[in-house]
Amino acid sequence: KIHIGCPRQTAAKYGFDDEFFYQELDLPHDKRAIKHMKGIMSDQVRKVFEESHTYKKRLRSGGGILAKIYQQMFLDDDSITPSDDGKGQGMTCTDEWMQAAIEVALEGQRKGESKEREPFGAIVVKDGVIVGRGYNTVLRDDDPTATAEVNAIRAACKVENSYKLVDHELYTTTEPDPMSLGAIYWARLNAIHIGVSQKLAAAFGHPDGLLHYKELETDFKERAIESEWNVMADGCENVFKSWKKLQGILY
């Protein structure tokens, strides 16, 4: 259960643009503030999924019946995916960078540090140089936020000694889940280069990201995690008033 004090509109009143992210999710990819380029080396990324531990363990067992169920659930239903693979789009970027992201994902699988040896990898690039790499380390770090994209952003921020990654671009094997996409927006990256969609990831046994997008489209009263709103809302807004009085800095 989530207990919430102020709605996002209250934060926006004091200059915090959190609501902007949710508005972005309602826009098609080609209309968003951060450029999305999809379908980069999608066939090669798909092979990583086909060899993933999760796919072999869960979906190939039992004669592949479960795999067929997943394909029917996810690949045949466009209504629950935030995007399509868009194969062949966004080929202005170099395949070498996506290949580097694939290698990062494979590294995580080999080390066994990625959650269930998941096929997710990401890199951050600036001026032709990789400044951040990351794969999923949720189990290793006991950190549910340690996705490939978030880890790559964290690494890049340390290298650049800044929380802003303006003029940087992120290459990720899979369309970011909502949390990771939020981190990309907070970091002010210029562009995202995506291998395959969350829909394909779901078909290979990784439905979490896709289901999280679906949750955002669901009314709060019907979501999996219960929410209680306006808990001491006035007191919570006083924190914003105090911040304004102290001339806090927006970032």
Q: How would you characterize this protein structure?
A:
This is CMP/dCMP-type deaminase domain-containing protein. GO terms for molecular function: guanosine deaminase activity. InterPro entries: CMP_dCMP_dom (IPR002125), Cytidine_deaminase-like (IPR016193). One of its GO terms (biological process) is purine nucleoside catabolic process. The protein is of the alpha/beta class and 251 residues long. The chain has two domains: 1-30 and 226-250, no CATH class; 34-217, Cytidine Deaminase, domain 2 (3-Layer(aba) Sandwich), CATH 3.40.140.10. It contains twelve helices and seven strands. The strands form two sheets. Strands 2-6-5-3-4 form a five-stranded mixed sheet. Strands 1-7 form a two-stranded parallel ribbon. Helix 8 (148-160) packs parallel to helix 9 (178-186). The protein is globular, with a radius of gyration of 19 Å.
Secondary structure blueprint with pairings:
Blueprint lengths: L1 E2 L4 H6 L4 H8 L9 E3 L4 H9 L2 H7 L5 H11 L19 H17 L9 E6 L2 E7 L2 H4 L6 H13 L8 E6 L3 H9 L4 E6 L1 H6 L4 H9 L10 E2 L4 H13 L6
Parallel strand pairs: 1-7, 2-6, 5-6
Antiparallel strand pairs: 3-4, 3-5
Helix pairs in contact: 8-9
